[in-house]
């Protein structure tokens, strides 16, 4: 049974400006594991896309549970990838749920959708 659905869209240039304006922005959004991946990306554009995708996925998850960011922090939600490259979400307290996430990018936007299903 589906317990929640969330979607979020973010402008890549907004993320780029946030990175340039505040050097702690990535630390606020990304977990330690996510930061390791982010810092190993060689292309600045790919870093913006990665961060925007994680930002959108975390916002989408918070919307799916019905709280929004605030009750949950960006640090509570971790978006990693499978061996095949598909995104996955880990959230403490939600281990009993199946969480599905999809992230996509265009030239100007990153979009993420999350579906939470009761096991």
Automatic annotation (TrEMBL):
* EC code(s) of this entry: 2.7.8.7
Gene3D superfamilies to which the protein is assigned, alphabetical: 4'-phosphopantetheinyl transferase domain (3.90.470.20)
Which UniProt keywords are given for this protein, alphabetically ordered?
Cytoplasm, Fatty acid biosynthesis, Fatty acid metabolism, Lipid biosynthesis, Lipid metabolism, Magnesium, Metal-binding, Transferase
Give the residues the record marks as binding Mg(2+).
8, 59
> What positions does the domain 4'-phosphopantetheinyl transferase occupy?
4-113
Catalysed reaction(s) here are:
apo-[ACP] + CoA = holo-[ACP] + adenosine 3',5'-bisphosphate + H(+)
Mind listing the GO molecular function terms for this protein?
Answer: holo-[acyl-carrier-protein] synthase activity
* Pfam families, alphabetized: ACPS (PF01648)
Localisation: Cytoplasm
Looking up HAMAP family in the UniProt record yields: AcpS (MF_00101)
Q: Which family does it belong to?
A: Belongs to the P-Pant transferase superfamily. AcpS family.
Q: What is this protein called?
A: Holo-[acyl-carrier-protein] synthase
Species: Virgibacillus byunsanensis
Biological classification of the source: Bacteria, Bacillati, Bacillota, Bacilli, Bacillales
């Amino acid at each position: 049974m589906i317990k929640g659905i969330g979607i979020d869209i973010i402008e890549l240039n907004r993320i780029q400006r946030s990175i340039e304006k505040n050097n702690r922005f990535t630390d606020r959004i990304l977990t330690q594991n996510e930061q390791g991946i982010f810092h190993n990306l060689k292309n600045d554009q790919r870093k913006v896309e990665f961060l925007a995708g994680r930002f959108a996925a975390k916002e989408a998850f918070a919307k799916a549970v019905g709280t929004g960011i605030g009750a949950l922090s960006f640090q509570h939600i971790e978006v990693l990838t499978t061996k095949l490259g598909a995104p996955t979400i880990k959230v403490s307290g939600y281990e009993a749920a199946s969480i599905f996430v999809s992230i996509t990018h265009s030239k100007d936007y990153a979009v993420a959708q999350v579906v939470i299903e009761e096991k």
